[in-house]
């Protein structure tokens, strides 16, 4: 059985250039030619790499209700592993080929192509600006400079709640209606940012050493709220001109997300949540969500939303 059949069900299998553009528009800064591959990350992030190696993002799983070959046939896709096929936008590292083969959903799928930021990200300096070998030897002022430079070069770090959420949801929400209306692609993928990112299948939080704990509670709150905000933004875009079953499914998701945001607003009382709810288009929702992510970049300290968070036993473990 071909490897792509086993790929993690992220959301897209297709063929036409128009369909590819529809997915790509959600992440317009993506450059496949700048992908370096997970092996480059492994050199400095061995524990994280081991988690990824055994994760659904890399090895995938076979869902008996998900017939990849049937979907490909209905979509008229003869080569799902082609970097130009819509399949590669989500079931692989978005169109990038390494050594002649498509990379699976890897580090750069979430953190963006690394060619322009990899060296900066991994170069530590002391207070005098001299290179040092260990991260622990890095001066705080140099760390801030390094992170800022990596940000400018396009890296999506774990602290970038908005951008990270958008990378995830741009695939998990199924951004092309032909996949559902014509191809019969699964339409009700119950993705939720906190429980999916902090489950043992995906979580790789080794910043404090060999232990891999869930992120702190303040960060958990932010991931939950940001996931709902970005989902609402993207669904506003996806429901425009939607038809058939796709329209029905995505509008149901939009209403469900709206209800969750209302619950969040009732608990948190932040005007930025209200701005997302009052948005009439994706651009307005995006602006409010980005501002919210910046405001709470260190996490949400208020425990008022805790009753809304998914229970730890529902995480993707």
Automatic annotation (TrEMBL):
The reply to whether DNA-binding figures as a keyword in the UniProt entry is: no
Q: Where does the record locate the signal sequence feature?
A: 1-18
Keywords attached to this entry: Signal
Question: Which residues belong to any copy of the Cytochrome c-552/4 domain?
Answer: 40-111
Short name of any one Pfam family annotated for the protein: Cytochrome_C554
Q: What is the designated name of this protein?
A: Cytochrome c-552/4 domain-containing protein
